[in-house]
């Protein structure tokens, strides 16, 4: 049986890097011993072929939907 987990949360730009490391398994987890690295190849992404930079992608989305000329604050919630 397949299922998907969707999680919505407000985050600052510096928090996105940690989520990226977690989701894409870019670092070995020291706090969760249940992660089976042998099964990581079974994970897949419907949209992206490889790992992406979350900060860069979020900024692209914000810029594409921006209507004003004001610069986005560096401490803005994304």
Q: Could you describe the 3D structure shown?
A:
This protein is an all-alpha fold. It has one domain. Helix content is 29%, strand content 0%. The chain contains two helices and no strands. It has helices at 13-23, 54-65. The longest helix has 12 residues, at 54-65. The radius of gyration is 15 Å and the shape is elongated. The model has no long low-confidence stretch (mean pLDDT 84).
Number of helices: 2
Largest sheet: none
Give the number of domains: 1
The rounded Rg comes to 15 Å
Report the principal-axis shape: elongated
- Beta-strand residue fraction: under 5%
Quote the distance from N terminus to C terminus.
33 Å
Q: Flag low-confidence runs.
A: none
How many strands?
A: 0
Along the chain, the helix and strand elements come as HH
Please, what is the average pLDDT?
Answer: 84
Q: In which range does the helix fraction lie?
A: 25-40%
Structural class, please? mainly alpha
Chart the SSEs and their pairings.
Layout (H helix, E strand, L loop, with lengths): L12 H11 L30 H12 L13
Features:
0% strand; 29% helix; mainly alpha; 78 residues
Put the structure in a nutshell.
With 78 residues, the chain is mostly helical. Helix content is 29%, strand content 0%. The chain has one domain.
């Amino acid at each position: 049986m397949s299922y998907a987990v969707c999680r919505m949360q407000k985050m600052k730009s510096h928090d996105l890097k940690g989520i990226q490391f977690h989701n894409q398994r870019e670092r070995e987890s020291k706090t969760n011993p249940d992660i089976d690295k042998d099964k990581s190849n079974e994970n897949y992404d419907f949209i992206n072929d490889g790992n992406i930079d979350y900060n860069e992608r979020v900024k692209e989305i914000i810029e594409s939907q921006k209507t004003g000329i004001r610069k986005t604050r560096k401490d803005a919630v994304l």
